[in-house]
Amino acid sequence: MLINRDNTHNYIKKILFFLIFLSICLFLIPIEPIMPGVGLDPSWQHAMNVAISEKLELGKNIIFTYGPYIGICTHYFHPKLDSINMICSSFLSISFGYLIYNLLRKEKVTIIFLFFAIFFLISNTNYRDFIFYLAPFMLFFDFIRSDINNTERSLLHDFILYFPIGLIVLIKCSFIIPYLVILPIIFFILISSKRAKEIITISIIIFSGLIFFWTISDQKPANLLSYFISNIPLISGFSEGMSSTEHSLSEVILFWSLGIIIIVQLLFLKHKPHSFILSIVSIFIIFLSFKSGFVRQDEHTKISFSILIFVAFFIYLFSKTRSSFIIFCLCTITSFTSYKLYNNTSFSSSIKGNFVKIYDGIKLRSQHKKLKTEYQKKLDDINKQIQLPILSGSSDIYNFEQSYLLASKNIWNPRPVFQSYTAYTKELLYANRDHLLSDKSPDNLFFKVETIDGRLPSTEDGNSWPLILSNYKPIKFENDYLILKKRYEQNRDIKLDLIQKQSGRLNQEIKIPDHTGLLFCRIKIEPTFLGKFITRFFRSDKLYIITKENNNSEKKYKLISGMVETDYLISPLVEDTKDYYNLYKTDRLKYKNVKSVKIIPNDRNFLIDFWQDNFEIEFYNFSN
User: Fold this and answer.
1) What pLDDT is recorded for position 254?
2) CB-hemisphere CA count at 13 Å for 76?
3) If both were cysteines, with which of 122, 237, 517, 606 could 425 make a disulfide (CB 3.0 to 4.6 Å apart)?
4) Are 516 and 477 in the same domain?
5) Is 81 part of any domain?
6) Residues 6 or more apart whose Cβ sits within 8 Å of residue 601
């Protein structure tokens, strides 16, 4: 009777592991290919696919957070990349499946079923980032448990688990961050145990995987370091550049209350050295998940709560205490409740919708030629929405609707940070400006003034505006796009004339100096020490600029401190593409001249001084 029960349990385990592996495959492998679309997110997802397919050099020609295997995360389809994305995502699924099997194979059926149920539900939220932040935590958990049990790991085991790290960090550059903490801790433990040979083995496997996946993506080996270095300003500037403070802090407090409870319980468990190290890694992973979800505090919070659930789950596996199980249940219930804050659809609707997509995807993939036909049909549909004229030479498009240009059959010649709203630091802004001055500058520009989050429009690629105004002439205004043609064979650099430099204070009205041409300015405004601390560990508080025109009308815009460190147009006020077009005319939009500005902090924040009161402002005259 006991033998039959064991056989039944083993049979159920096999079924559950198969279902877990199937869920991972359906989650990671782009079975349901997403075709190009229009809008902010679809544009960068399609543009990155095109950039990779055209072998543009990541880290040099293109500076973006995602890498050559972006399709594994977004599931966006491109005919030239589909095969490699399918193969690499399948390999990644095998690696994750093996890792989870290794972690759960000795557990009871109920534990394995619990993991499957949670993973199945979370995977249907369609945010794949969570598994790539969770993977290093599971890797570390596997290492810690084998170290406690003195289990020997085979070379094949290490290869399956460590070789894919090279692939993961080439999906999205920020996925490298948890490994930069976890791998040194693993190496420290190995050194302490006098197992230095294992460090060499693991290092060789990881480095080999990185070189292998970078090379087969048709990227030059010499550019690998540039890919990582170029992402530093994108990652470091994200907390201010993309922050949103419109939401309540109650969800933040709830998240960290659960996170702290999870960490504190580890300090009271047995295996003291290992539980202490596990607590350090756990709080780091929870912190990373918090940053990924709460800087903007929108649907991305699903990533944060998903990771929180699984961290609590694996700590329960580590401790097997009643209190850790209660904490896990509390995290699960709370996290699934928070899901409803940003979703109008239920889990059942999401699951049903995903299965319909998968079925349609399998049906579409069964007719391989139809995939390319569907892809081209979608591009044709996009082109019909706004038919951009086909121009001689190469072209770029401002600000972020790359899909329109890519569907138009023009030759795409993008600036490195090809969506202007993501050029939110001085380094990124100058990278785009330098592109216009290089011998690879585009012959044509499709220019549209558009922005996000209520920012001052002229701050987005603002230091490129003098170059564009001087080196490109308007040809046509069509479909809200100003079509610009290069005036000279080689673009000329433009030097602005400094006419005034002064100090200012927050909430102080600053008069605009007299000027003959267009007036540009730079502002050097710094956060306080506490402001810097909060930005690093949470997100930046908002800054606003209030402009007052000659007719005394006032406008309020969001300001990003990194964007205003370089030149941007302050007067006249440009609010749309027609205003920009009028800058080429003789009267230069004089009726929208600004007579004063005021920099103000977030009026909702009355507890701390986030920004320093004093700042430096410089005014520059530009005459074309």
Assistant:
1) 81
2) 23
3) 237
4) no
5) no
6) 506, 507, 541, 542, 543, 544, 609, 610, 611
The count of domains in the chain is 3
Q: Which of 444, 463, 486 is the last residue of a domain?
A: 486
Whether residue 99 contacts residue 138, with contact meaning beta carbons closer than 8 Å, is answered with yes
At residue 479, φ and ψ (nearest 5 deg) are 50, 40
Residues 501, 414 share a domain:
no
Neighbours of 512 (CB within 10 A): 19
Supply 163's token pair. Answer: 């070789």
SS3 of 528-548: the string is: CHHHHHHHHHCCCCCEEEEEE
Edge-to-edge, what's the strand order for the sheet holding 594-601?
509-511, 594-601, 543-549, 554-559
Instruction: At 225, list the tokens.
Output: 């370091």
SS3 350: helix
Assigned domain for 146 exists: no
The stretch 156-176 carries a mean pLDDT of 95
DSSP 99-134: HHHHHHTTS-HHHHHHHHHHHHHHHTT--THHHHHH
User: Which residues are bridge partners to 601 per DSSP?
Assistant: 543
Tell me the CATH number at 618.
2.60.120
pLDDT in tens, 609-622: 889 999 999 999 98
Give the separation between CA 570 and CA 510, rounded to whole angstroms. 12
Identify whether residues 276 and 382 lie together within a single domain: no
What is the pTM assigned to this prediction?
0.90
Q: Are residues 423 and 476 in the same domain?
A: yes
Closest C-alpha to 424, from 228, 538, 561: 561
Query: Which of the 8 DSSP states describes residue 342?
Result: S
Tell me which H or E stretch contains 509.
Answer: strand 509-511
547 and 598 housed in the same domain: yes
Which SS3 state, helix, strand or coil, does residue 266 take? helix
Which of 437, 465, 486 delimits the end of a domain?
A: 486
For residues 314 and 383, membership in a common domain is answered with: no
CA distance 155 to 144: 17
Partners of 483 in the beta sheet? 446, 476
Both structure tokens of 274:
């290992």
State whether 334 and 385 are in the same domain: no
- Report d(CA 78, CA 58) in Å as an integer: 17
- Note whether residue 391 is domain-resident: yes
Rounded to 10°, the helix 322-339/301-319 angle is: 170
In-domain check, residue 135: no
Query: pLDDT tens for residues 272-307?
Result: 677 888 888 988 998 998 888 888 877 778 888 888
Supply the range of the domain harboring residue 318: 244-346
d(CA 243, CA 294): 8
SS (H, E, C) 379-422: HHHHHHHCCCCCCCCEEEEECCCHHHHHCCCCEECCCCCCCHHH
Give 485: exposed, middle or buried? Use CB within 10 Å, 0-12, 13-18, 19+. Answer: middle
- DSSP state string for 144-194: HHHHHTTPPPPHHHHHHHHTTHHHHTTTBGGGGHHHHHHHHHHHHHHHHTT
Contacts for 272 with CB less than 8 Å, ≥ 6 apart = none
The answer to whether residues 618 and 501 belong to one domain is yes
